[in-house]
Specification:
five-stranded mixed sheet; 40% helix; 489 residues; 9% strand
Length: 489
């Protein structure tokens, strides 16, 4: 049954607002819930209130009380992203932009504004631009990238391993994705604290965000010109030389989109996985006991805490129906990855194990599904495994309730993740890692099966008579080669 839609325009009548003292006081025009401001500090709770009040598709208000639909249902989100004949990412079709409801200085304009990139393109133009990006992605040497991820992880850990303390957000999660993406793009020399800071700053909406974006674009434009003149085997050269014949502006803009989306999503994913490992004894026990692998842990995190909470806007190309609501032509809709992932119709028990299930919304879907998701997964898989192998005794260095997040309608970013561990010596980043046999202390990290030591072990006292005889060390061969392949060695 299709219900009448809430009007997403004409809600400025003060008589529609709740009277003082009413439980609904504090809502926006028309009694609609705001997705910003003091009432929306916990957007997850707001989404659940909207679900209880309206079902799978709910009316709400963006910043400056711009009306929009929030798609909360898993199936409804999948239908929207998979039906380009009815829903578009071309924001120029959005009535709120056409009639001036969304003003040029709207705080979400950097997200909303149309750009000549595949994310906003339709039809043949989308096929041309998206095809070039996908084709360039397909040429990436994933085995070589896994080796680089491992080396980059060792390099980052070397910077703090002797201290015995670190912030795994500022010193690890915010750096590893940028180091890897700079390598993929063919600009390893550009990786620095400055480009990491600029990538973080431009997403915060600060006073310096425009300058940070200009710096990123300058780096990528110079790279484009350089590779146009001297192509190599990197992602940038492949994008330039694709049969789609992207011009320099198109190349630089697509490099920016891939860089920033991959960076922010993977930084959040790394921080989320590490936080759960450090704060959830049951989660860590499953990894220690072999009931869960790191890739499965990453997939569980993509269900529970998708790196991006929402994507906006999609726009209805014609009058249609979604989740029992009548959607008018030109209405804007929010792709709700976070609320869709906890839709009780697909996850009645949020504590249920989702290992191996990739039907989450973390990477969107349909024509605009993230083309670089396997790179993001590889960075998280290899990076988390390598970090925790180097620091098997790592522990959270604060109370869990003291952790802080920086939240927006787009995502929820952990501010810091302070940890402590026994100081460790630096390691040659080019050497194959040597794995010591892990202790039986339940707090120690055991994500990989023990491997034979490469150096002669220290003498140990004889084991008590009642102790079980240890298993013989595995013989070199297929097993070791498989593990080396998994670690990118």
């Amino acid at each position: 049954m299709v219900t009448e839609s809430h009007s997403l325009t004409g809600t400025d009548d003060p008589s529609l607002g709740p009277p003082p003292g009413c439980p609904a006081h504090g809502k926006g025009p028309g009694g609609l819930r705001r997705l910003y401001g003091p009432e929306a500090e916990d957007l997850g709770a707001v989404y659940e209130k909207l679900r209880a009040e309206h079902g799978a598709v709910a009316p709400a208000l963006l910043h400056e009380d711009v009306p929009i639909w929030v798609v909360l249902g898993h199936g409804e989100n999948m239908h929207m992203v998979r039906t380009p004949s009815q829903y578009s990412r071309d924001t120029r079709l959005w009535t709120a932009l056409q009639d001036g409801t969304v003003k040029p200085d709207h705080p979400l304009m950097p997200i909303i504004a149309w750009q000549p990139i595949c994310c906003h393109a339709e039809g043949d133009e989308h096929l041309r631009l998206r095809g070039a990006v996908t084709s360039a992605m397909s040429t990436i040497d994933h085995r070589g990238i896994r080796r680089h991820i491992n080396r980059a992880t060792q390099h980052l850990v070397n910077k703090f391993c002797e201290e015995g303390r670190a912030d795994l957000v500022a010193q690890f999660a915010e750096h590893l994705p940028m180091a890897v993406m700079c390598e993929i793009f063919g600009m390893p020399d550009e990786y620095s604290d400055r480009i990491v800071h600029a990538a973080r700053d431009m997403l915060k909406g600060t006073e310096t965000a425009i300058a940070s974006n200009a710096y990123i674009m300058d780096v990528l434009t110079r790279l484009t010109v350089r590779r146009r003149a001297e192509p190599k085997g990197d992602f940038t050269s492949r994008l330039i030389n694709d049969p789609a014949q992207l011009n320099d502006e198109e190349v630089a803009q697509h490099l920016r989109v891939v860089l920033i989306v991959a960076y922010e999503a993977t930084a959040n994913l790394l921080a989320n996985v590490l936080r759960v490992v450090l704060t959830d004894p049951g989660f860590r026990a499953q990894l220690n006991g072999g009931q869960m692998t790191v890739p499965q842990a990453v997939e569980q995190s993509l269900w529970d805490e998708p790196p991006f909470s929402t994507i906006l806007p999609y726009v209805a190309k014609q009058e249609t129906e979604l989740g029992g609501r009548r959607i008018r032509k030109g209405d804007g809709l929010i792709l709700g990855m976070e609320p869709g992932n906890v839709d009780p119709r697909v996850r009645p028990d949020l504590k249920a194990n989702m290992q191996g299930n990739r039907s989450h919304l973390a990477f969107s879907g349909g024509p605009h599904e993230c083309p670089g998701q396997d790179i993001g997964r590889a960075i998280a898989d290899v990076g988390v495994d390598a970090l925790l192998t180097r620091l098997p005794d790592v522990q959270l260095d604060c109370e869990e309730h003291e952790l802080r997040w920086r939240a927006s309608i787009s995502n929820r970013h952990l501010v810091e993740l302070p940890v402590r561990f026994a100081p460790k010596p630096q390691q040659d980043v080019m050497a194959r890692p040597a794995y010591a046999v892990p202790s039986q202390n339940p707090s120690d990290w055991q994500v990989s099966r023990p491997q034979p030591q490469t150096a002669a072990p220290e003498p140990v006292a004889p084991a008590p008579a009642q102790a079980p005889t240890p298993e013989p060390a595995p013989r070199p061969g297929v097993f070791r080669r498989l593990q080396r392949w998994w670690r990118g060695m």
